[in-house]
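Bug #77: duplicate submission created two jobs. Keeping one. Sequence:
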Amino acid sequence: RHGRTNSLVDVAGVKVGHAERVGDGWRTGVTVVLPPPEGAVCGVDVRGAAPGTRETDLLDPRNLVRRVHAVVLAGGSAYGLAAATGVMERLASDGVGFPVKPGLVVPIVPGAVIFDLGRGGADRATPDATMGAAAYDACRDGAVAQGGVGAGSGAVVGGLAGGVGSASVVLGPSGATRESPEQRRAAPEGLTVAALAVVNAAGSPFDPADGSLYAARLGLPGEFPARAPDPAEVSAWGGGAGGGVPDVSFNTVIGVVATDARLTKAQCARLASAAHDGLARAVRPSHTMTDGDTIFALATGAGAPHRAGADALDVAGSAPDLAGFNALRGAAADTFTRAIGHAVLAASGWPGVASYARTFPSALAGG
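Kept job's structure:
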């Protein structure tokens, strides 16, 4: 089953905020993922050949800092990395960050960007520190707004409107994963895995043969449309996916997968790696030479049992065993797939860029 909101904030303590600007040449934005004030253990996996990232080297398990204090996802290509400065300033003002001496912290804020330059008309209308601060100020633990919001405001996937999507799953012995029966039985009961994706890919999110969403095949019961579009609508689209890829085909899917399990940095990196499997199931092709696909993984540890006397950062004795961790990885892959599906369904499009819902209305008829 999915969590309370079927979104990233179902991991306790995690908040999400969006800021965007649309109109007068603008169509871009920022999405901030905010863990609890003590931060979250973080890993990353970069698969695309054209990434735009910040602070990813710091997340290598061999390196010093274990926890991050926010993750910034933004439009604007490399220009959009400036949004993280505004988030850093807000965190520092709130006294949140890595302590370097009494009274001084350095907030750890990794980030990644998508290419959406010119989607609103003006090539240099890009996120900055002010927009990043606005997204930080908007962070809430309520249901996550999806579609053309935040970092997904100018996103395109396979020639259709892309955007932000999110999903969650609560694990248990009955198994809400697609792993083997043995791994389902080993799933750590009650832990949550959730994902948020910003979908802006060169590949397509739907099957060219019948127009059905790839992501729908991994949905929970009743989560996605139960029927494929009418053949006439598929034919009108052009008989195949990808026919509307933008003239400048620089793209990217970026996102975050999070859990309340207690994991190491290395395990978080493996969780991010699994989420890329979910990306590859939902968008075809993925990880191309013009995609900058980057996924972060956060582990808060809030849902794991604490060993008496253990330090808050100590993972010994409370991390999942091998079978349980494999179940977490399977859930991360499926949940990221589902998040991509929700991004496509929630997108509304704009002049010159159609949405999936408008292109294939029969798929959504009747719920």
